[in-house]
Design a protein that fits this description.
Elements: E1 8-11, E2 32-35, H1 56-69, H2 76-86, H3 90-103, H4 107-120, H5 125-144, H6 148-166, H7 173-185, H8 189-202, H9 208-226, H10 232-242, H11 246-259, H12 264-276, H13 280-293, H14 305-318, H15 322-335, H16 340-352, H17 356-369, H18 374-383
Antiparallel strand pairs: 1-2
Helix pairs in contact: 1-2, 1-4, 3-4, 4-5, 5-6, 6-7, 7-8, 8-9, 10-11, 10-12, 11-12, 12-13, 12-14, 13-14, 14-15, 15-16, 16-17, 17-18
């Protein structure tokens, strides 16, 4: 498999070459990276193109590839001066292009563009924040497709990027806001609270967008505090589950519930640990209790409703109650119509019931939303 740098060659361009006139402060002693139309057979292993055929676009593309895949290159400062002089609006154009690629699910190319942008301006913390947000969103996509290992890897990269972005000087306000929601998804409530509290100190309440963000941040901080979700026992329970130590998680979450019996998040953690231990009936009871507590209009259960429904449906499916399992999955899909994990689970329920055509339709729907959904693709292949 070829590497992106395989299609880049470094060429010594003479002073009198036509392309050199288009390069400000041209230095013939420094070879320039040139992007070829096809990869070389081994880096530098093919004949280099004639300098008369070179265009500024080929050099710009080569420089961006170097920024993305060879950021320690000795001549990056010179290359940076070239690209900003020839194309001063390149940051905005590339950022828009990367965002569009991410929206279309072309994660690899989006990450390549954002990485190149970071190399173009390594002092701009927004370059790091863009990579954090991209990996954050990509993790959600992988997890919805049942690709948990890939999702965990993206979460790890997002965590590292957020940490760098929040260390920027002067502080980057939006880094703390987005990191807060990332930690919230990770059930790392203490970190979420700290990040959002810092955001609230930094943000200037000017404009509707800032005011809405601040209201949202205050509500989450208040919820975490009122439910003691930043309690050590709660955090320990979550950490134990993610490490595969469900029995220890049960001890921690039960101790937490002794003091906070009406926190739905804790009942969810209890159910999650029990479900992973395949204690279906006990897990079902815990998830049902979480939903019961969620009837309180101030419970804040909206953020976890889909996950609770999905987990409860899995328990019911394993207990043979396919009608109720389908009902809870349908409720989850109503809240999150593009959730491919829910679609695949609906397909699994239909398959358990012997409804092969209906199952196939759910798996096909999942693949329409996410062509990389391995479970749906595997199940369709087996059905065919």
């Amino acid at each position: 498999m070829s590497h992106p740098l395989d299609s880049v060659v470094f060429i010594d361009i003479p002073e009198d070459a036509a392309v050199s006139a288009a390069i400000p402060s041209f230095d013939s002693s420094i070879p320039l990276p040139v992007q070829l139309s096809a990869p070389l057979d081994g880096r530098g292993g093919a004949a280099k193109p004639d300098t008369s055929s070179l265009t500024p676009e080929m050099i710009l593309a080569g420089i961006l590839t170097v920024f993305a895949y060879d950021p320690e290159n000795a001549h990056t400062a010179y290359y940076r001066s070239i690209i900003t002089s020839i194309h001063p609006g390149i940051r905005e154009e590339m950022t828009e292009a990367a965002i569009l690629k991410a929206r279309n699910g072309d994660w690899d190319l989006a990450e390549e563009i954002f990485t190149a942008l970071r190399g173009l301006d390594p002092e701009d913390p927004r370059g790091v924040l863009n990579l954090a947000l991209l990996n954050d969103q990509r993790a959600d996509s992988f997890r919805n497709a049942g690709m948990d290992e890939e999702a965990d890897a993206c979460d790890g990269r997002a965590f590292d990027y957020y940490r760098v972005a929040m260390a920027a000087e002067p502080p980057l306000t939006e880094a703390f806001f987005n990191a807060g929601f990332f930690y919230l998804k990770q059930k790392s409530y203490r970190k979420a609270k700290e990040a959002l509290e810092t955001y609230l100190k930094l943000e200037s309440p000017e404009g509707d967008t800032a005011k809405n963000r601040m209201d949202k941040a205050r509500a989450i901080v208040s919820e975490i505090s009122s439910r003691d979700l930043d309690d050590d026992l709660f955090k320990a329970a979550y950490d134990y589950i993610t490490m595969g130590e469900e029995e220890k998680a049960l001890e921690s979450v039960r101790l937490f519930l002794e003091h906070h019996p009406r926190v739905w998040n804790a009942w969810f953690l209890l159910g999650w640990a029990l479900r992973r231990l395949e204690r279906w009936e006990d897990a079902k009871a815990a998830f049902t209790q979480a939903l019961e507590l969620g009837k309180d209009p101030n419970s804040g259960i909206e953020s976890g409703y889909v996950d609770i429904c999905n987990e409860l449906a899995i328990c019911l499916m394993e207990l043979g109650d396919y009608a109720q399992s389908r009902s809870w999955l349908a409720s989850a899909l109503e809240q999150d119509p593009e959730n491919v994990k829910i679609m695949s689970n609906l397909g699994t329920v239909a398959l358990r019931e012997g409804k092969r055509e209906e199952a196939a339709s759910f798996f096909r729907a999942a693949l329409e939303f996410d062509p990389k959904d391995r479970l749906a693709a595997q199940m369709l292949q087996e059905l065919s």
